[in-house]
Every structure is written in C-alpha cells, then in structure tokens.
Amino acid sequence: MANAASVVDQFKGLPMETLIGAPLKAACDSQVQLAQATADFIRQVGQLEDGKARMSEFRYKRPTYDDKGIQNGSEEVSLEVPMLAVVKVPSLGITSLDITFDMEVKSSFAEKNSTKADATATASWSGWGAKVSIQGSVSTARENTRSSDNSAKYHVQLHAEDRGLPEGLARVLDILQASISTPLPVTP
C-alpha cells in the first residue's frame, strides 16, 4: 500500500492552472492576433491613406452593335471595382481547443541481489611417515540492480478554420459591390 501512496504523491504539486490555463490563454491571444491580421489586411489592401476605398480599374474591349443587333465593331470600356470586393479577406478563427493531460506513473522498482560465496580448505601435516597439506580459498560476489520509471504525456490540439466574413464586413462589401456601375466607354 505504501507503493500506491507514492504513486498518488506523484500528482501532488502539479501546476494544473498552468497546464490547462496556458493553452487557453494562448488560444485567446491567437484569436486576437487573427482578428488583428484581418484588420491590418483591410487597412493595407482595401483602403487608401485618407480612408477611401482602394479601387482597381479593369479595361477591356466589348463588342458594339447597330440598331438591328448586328455587331459592328468594339469599344474599350473601363470598370472600377473596390479591391476588397475582388480579393479574399482573411478571416480565420479558432473553432475548437482540446487539452488532454495524461499522466502515467510507472514506479517499477526492481531490485536484484545475489550473493555468491565459495570456500575451500585443505590441510597438510607430516609426521609418522605421513604428509598432510592444507590450502584455503574464499571468494564472494554481490550484485544489486535498482530501476525506476516515471513518464507523463501532455497533448494540446488546436483547430482553426475560415469562419467566413463577419456580418458587418459582408454588408460593407455589398455596398461597395453595389457601387460598381455599368462599364463606361474610355474616352481618348
């Protein structure tokens, strides 16, 4: 039971507010950066310094027809279009955030002890016509093995996707697109 208590002790002192709160704060900060990127894009691509819409002029030739509907030539025309109406405005947003905290404690304790001892003895004596010899030998061996394993897993998964244009920006773009008039003949 003492081993189970030491496994529980592994969980004490974990900074849960950091493990869970830090990814949430990072996701919030990321959302702010994404919104700022959209605002910067609109200012840099869609507006002039005076706040007016940046326009793009398109010139092309279109056929001209007589009163009977027969093509009798072509004329060069131009069309001014707001830049924000012809480019994709980035609008990414975080749609889900999964924080998974798995802690796996492996307190595998292995201890291996072995002791080996050898002893030999020989005795010798000589007398009355007999000869005796003594020899002695002692050897010992000892082996200790100890191992421990602790591991933890921390997984943060973030999913961001294009959430489409905000309603306000969509309405502004509708107004800008409505301002696109019929192509006008280019005067030399």
Automatic annotation (TrEMBL):
InterPro entries: DUF2589 (IPR024510). Pfam families: DUF2589. This is DUF2589 domain-containing protein. It comes from Stenotrophomonas koreensis.
